[in-house]
Description:
A: Rossmann fold, B: Rossmann fold, four-stranded mixed β-sheet, CO-methylating acetyl-CoA synthase activity (chain B), 4Fe-4S (chain B), nickel (chain B), Prismane-like_a/b-sand (chain B)
Amino acid sequence: MDLNNFTTVEQMEAETARLRECAACSGxxxxxxxKKAQTPSCKFGEDGVCCRICSMGPCRITPKAPRGIxxxxxxAIAGRNYLRMIAGGxxxxxxxxxxxxxxLHSTKKDGHYQVKxxxxxxxxxxxxxxxxxxxxxxxxxHEVALAGMMEYGKPFGxxxxxxxxxxxxxxxxxxxxxxxxxxxxxxxxxxxxxHMGNTADAEALVMQGLRTGMADGWGGSxxxxxxxxxxxxxxxxxxxxxxxxxxxxxxxxxxxxxxDPAMSEMIVVAAEDKDLLDYARSKGAKxxxxxxxxxxxxxxxxxxxxxxxxxxxxxxxxxLTGIVEMITVDVQCIFPSLxxxxxxxxxxxxxxxxxxRIPGSTYVEFHPETAREQGRDLVRQAIDNFDKRDPAKxxxxxxxxxxxxxxxxxxxxxxxxxxxxxxxxxxxxxxPLIDCIKAGVIRGAVAIVGCNNPKVRPDHSHIEIMKKLLxxxxxxxxxGCAAQAAAKAGLLRKEAKDLCxxxxxxxxxxxxxxxxxxxxxxxxxxxxxxxxxxxxxxWGIDIPQVPVVGCAPEWMSEKAVAIANYVVSTGIDTYLxxxxxxxxxxxxxxLITEGTRKLTGAGYIINTNPDTLVQAMIDGIxxxxxxxxI
Amino acid sequence: MRLFDRAFTGSDxxxxxxxxxxxxxxxxxxADAPVAFGSTAYFLPCIYAYTGRKITKLSELKDVLExxxxxxxxxxxxxxxxxxxxxxxxxxxxxxxxxxxxxPTPYEEKYHGHxxxxxxxxxxxxxxxxxxxxxxxxIDEAPTDAQAQVLIKGYQSRGIFVFLLKGAIDQAERCGxxxxxxxxxxxxxxxxxxxSHIISVVVRAAFIFGNVQxxxxxxxxxxxxxxxxxxxxxxxxxxxxxxGCGAGAIAMGFPVITNDTVDVDVVPKxxxxxxxxxxxxxxxxxxxxIKIKVSNIDLPVACASAFEGEIIRKADMxxxxxxxxxxxxxxxxxxxxxxxxxxxxxxIGQDFDAMEVGCKINLAIIIDIAGKNMQSDFEPVxxxxxxxxVNCLEGVMxxxxxxxxxxxxxxxxxxxxxxVKHFGELLYAKMKNDFxxxxxxxxxxLVTEPELVTKLRKEANEIYDKRDARLRSLTDESxxxxxxxxxxxxxSPSHVCIVTPERLGLCGAVSWLDAKSTNELQPSGPxxxxxxxxxxxxxxxxxxxxxxxxxxxxxxxxxxxxLYSIMEDPMTSCGCFECIxxxxxxxxxxxxxxxxxAGSTPLGMTFAELASMTGGGVQTPGFxxxxxxxxxxxxxxxxxxxxxxxxxxPKALKDSVAERLNISAKELYGIxxxxxxxxxxxxxxxxxxxxxxxxxKGHPALExxxxx
Lengths: 630, 708
């Protein structure tokens, strides 16, 4: 085993430092500069006890002023702020899901968008009792899309996808009153409850937080994943590469960034067009290189093997290379700083969604009817920009790592079939994985998800936690920026088995997988919910009993809070490496850690030290094993 | 007790026995007494392998107890189970060594005990040739003697080397099974500790054949995991000490298959429960990914390449399946592993016995293949092989492919006992043997029931269409690489075909997909990857990479090839081309003539005369051999203007390519019914009438730039 084949956080940091040094002369500023300027953070904000919901305030809670003007105490204020974060996160994920439903609704046989996974469409139609017999596949697609969109605003009933959960969970959600109704309604309810003069009871706010989160994970996010698979294909394992070294000095580099793959899919398709390739060559480029950032990268890498330039805190670094002709963005996690930053270079910054309008960008609103031409047009503009590079500002990164990505639930089942014995085993179940866990070969599983956050050393927590888990025979599944951190470190390569304990190593060898399974973007955490659910079903136990936990070591966005809430509601303990902003309320801290555990069987475990956090996870998994008598 | 605890407990038991044995033996013989198994250069081989220690006397044996104990760690991790498992084997070897210290031949008569280096070396060649495809260690008694007999004989008949331990030996003896190293059924010893003699063989194989160094713990486990195809059949009730040894086996990569269901945790591909003893062999072989070559094919007639060219005349024919007269087809399909029952040969419909002499029959040959490495792109490659295989049968003739096959069976073969199922037996054996890398399971269905064949043929046609569509969707630009084909170098040593999606091999038999599959099936075979990154001129099909490949694989005879030109460095021919195209100077065009056409051409030459101008791996600008399907390709002499240059073809050839050629012409030039403008032998056989016809039809070649 050659450990030098893996990239360390130190090496990543050295690369960043080198880029920043090059960039300094261009007058470019990045998050590190702004983080300094923003330090120290506002303590009231950090503790969640600053209320600016009405204009009587802002009110801030101190020992001398324990209540706001209206009388709201720290619990009410922190609880309301917390619920609003969940509402924001759920809105973001779910609106992304809705947009994808609209794209599905726009599909046509010869249209710009088509149905790639008919089987999955038919399965979903069947699940939703939409008749398919003798119908055109596109009629079915439109009906399914419409049915999906109705989940956002239906006046009665709860989310359709809840039926996929274990019977125990469904009953529990109904009993607790956290089975989500229409997605938009839960968001509106959360906003309404937190309006001035409404709920001040922290427990009620936390309960609505769970329900709003559920509307994300078992509503909008799951919608996003399902519809994206139908549209662009269910991911299957693919080889790709990760880190800034995927940018090519001699090629036209186009970065796709954001979350919704509808636009980036068109760019990827356009970049393969022969006439555009010829055009690029005529301009002296060797080709067109598409690279992804953030979850758009995760989406297109899983389906096309498009390479991943990096995660959230690397978005500015990509531009600092001076060789990016164009960065096109859709929605979420896009730094407004890309505007001024792109002006320091020749880079064209293109915004495409009315959801994310950013100064300093060129706005090209994407529409399904014109998407293909728009994609081609953007690629052409990027090519035209190739010869405008400033040689003085070029700083080419070289580090990259191979990665194997694209482990949807369907793909995981297929891999597991590979280790079944046709004489004794069933196929298409998680039994091989369960058997490994029961026997102790694998101790359990951890889903590592979430963002980067300058509050901790970027990527360090992700990578160190992953390595420690692997060494302890715990299989890791990952999405989002955590997945990209793993890719950059080289942990998504099959060779990463050498970092594992004997159990995980043997499993990787026999199944032919890397020890960390890349499951997609942040909406794809819904895949993880289904994975945990189906493991529980195949095992014959409820989800909180399964030795599986979730972890967001470097989370930062409101989406992450929404996710944490549906994960906890699903019965999966969630380990956080960043403190939620409710510390100013003892009651809130108790509610989100132990309070929910009494209700859903799961809660947060918070620790900002990654070493302690990972040990807590290992202990938590072993405790679940002990409870099962395994 | 859970699995890990059982293994730990078993390890402790074995270690305690080893400690006691060493103490007892030293008490009896003294610490300086020698200890050796004899006839081995590897000391006590397991201990030497895993610790690097050269044990020659009892005091050293005592000293080794300490490191062995050090491996009996007790964290609940598989690593601890593995180290404990290996430690268990080492402890077992310590016990055995004590026996040999007291008596150099502790196992007389019934048991074999230690195996010599000579015996280990004897295994080398049969392991490489796969005459011995694997090893089984059978521990304890099968539920009944009859089952034991079937099991042991079953392994023996498959070439699997059998080691017996404990009760399994008594049972084999009761069944009257002949045992001994030469018959590859070795009764190793009566106690579980004798398992160390088997592991001793494994580690010495790693020393001798793998050059693994003493003390290289990882190296030994890796070698055995990757190269020694051994597995264990342990009959219940399993004792903990057996589980401890099993942990060692699994650490080395050897799966354990047991019929015990009590306190056994299943681990995929490692610890498998199979209570159906009748299915134990197949379960075990699949667990260790062992594929058995079929050595004896059950056939009443001979099968050899000598019969490949044999013609069956009508008078000698018993019956005939003729796809042009009655529905017939042959098809290879990819299936999931669970959908295929290995070696299932099924006949649906009547057998030859119920047929009359000279009759025409319906026949469908459907081969289902499942395998972890199987790809649907391999299907046509395997399907083409049916022709070769069936033709090798004595008294059987096969021509054509897909649903245009013709198979004749001679009267003499029928009388020799040849029946429909024998096609299945033959094809099963050949598929399993020739494509063992990808074929894990194979079943053959033969259908003679007329209505069913008709129905199935429609389904087969859909599959053929899909395959063709896939091939058509590929273009030279859309793929990452091309392939060489040097299949013909046995008789045309300097010829290299460059196979691209739009230009199949000139013999017409090797498409780009076929070449890709051949490359994957035989990585060092005739089809090698040719990259296409160093473009010289994409329009002409000139690439530096292609030139490099041509130079390498023609052994320097050629230095460049322009893929889409017949004037500038055209691709060479081996001699087995389907068609030749040659320049026709007056019209500025080319004529194409196919091998089957016997008449003359407007050039005044026949196919044979034209063929003599090219072939043999020589570049002759203006002349080029090619496959029939290349004619409609948009890359056909693209550098000289493409298919618009075609002025003459024999009528039969023209008709066969018309549909696709017309489509290409429409797409390229917007010309409808282009083939109507192409002359044939019914129109002209000389340049003047040809020119007159072309002028009358307004053939586009007349307007084009001169080629020379």
